[in-house]
Amino acid sequence: MENKKKNSSGETLYKIFIYVALITLAICIIVPVAWVFLASIKQNSEFYGNPWTLPAGFYWQNFVNAWTKAHMGEYMLNSVIVTALALAILLVVALPAAYVLSRFKFRSRGLLNAAFMAGLFINVNYIVVPIFLMFVDADSLVRKMGGKPFFLNNLVVLALVYAATALPFTIYLLSGYFSTLPKAYEEAAYVDGASYFKTMYKIIIPMAKPSIITVILFNFLSFWNEYIIAMTLLSNPNSGKTLPVGLMNLMKAQNAAAQYGQMYAGLVMVMLPTLILYICVQKKLTQGMTLGGLKG
């Protein structure tokens, strides 16, 4: 009886500790986010008093000014284009690669798997400068040949870089999930005369939807919020900027002009799509990553 009481009291203390830790973590996350949303609807005069006071009213003009005067609408369109294009390129390359690496045996399979696994340990921020210098040299070569440079300050090239840097993790997750799928359906498709591509498209991809959705959502969040690569490769002030880069430029400009409400409205524009998406699909995101990680 005493041991049971000790065990139950220990479990109770453990649960209390977990709840306190989770509540503290939730407060640390929710309070700053809520403060940014409240600050985005304040007038500039309200920022010079107590920063924790509630807004006197809903000053929606901050969002209008951020969208038009600060060009946040243009930046958001650029981010949508880059993110969608990067996801499309990533899936076109990663799905066949993961399918081949997980379902077929060939001589260089181990080497390719090792190369993609090694890519998981490379921090993209460490190779931004070499990528930038490589594109500078490529543009110089294009100029010498009489062409127009296009590697830098190009949204399509930026999307290509995003997709390339996301390949190791994406192929790792997809191949781990593909390898768990039963081969009976593939063999039946081969008997019926289906090609490898048709088998992948008709059989494997529909069966691997949880893992594919996870890849899309995870990489969407990564591409949408990426700043370092976009700032480096979109170096021309007159070229199109993505939303995070445009937000940083807005913050620098509005700090000098003391337009704080407009600055926080721009910050909300960056956060809101990712927050809504994550809230809607957090269960699928967690389940897909768990399946891909455990079964692979």
Characterise the protein shown here.
There is one protein chain. The protein is built from 12 helices and no strands. Helices cover 76% and strands 0% of the residues. It has a single domain, classed as MetI-like fold. It starts with a helix and ends with a helix. The protein is globular. It is mostly helical and 296 residues long. The chain has helices spanning 2-39, 61-68, 72-103, 109-119, 128-144, 155-178, 184-191, 196-207, 209-225, 228-233, 243-257, 260-295.
Point out poorly predicted stretches.
292-296
The chain-level mean pLDDT equals 81
CATH domain class name: Mainly Alpha
General form: globular
CATH topology: MetI-like fold
Number of DSSP strand runs: 0
Helix and strand arrangement:
Layout: H1 2-39, H2 61-68, H3 72-103, H4 109-119, H5 128-144, H6 155-178, H7 184-191, H8 196-207, H9 209-225, H10 228-233, H11 243-257, H12 260-295
Concise summary:
The chain is mainly alpha-helical.
Output the keywords.
296 residues, mainly alpha, MetI-like fold, 76% helix, disordered C terminus
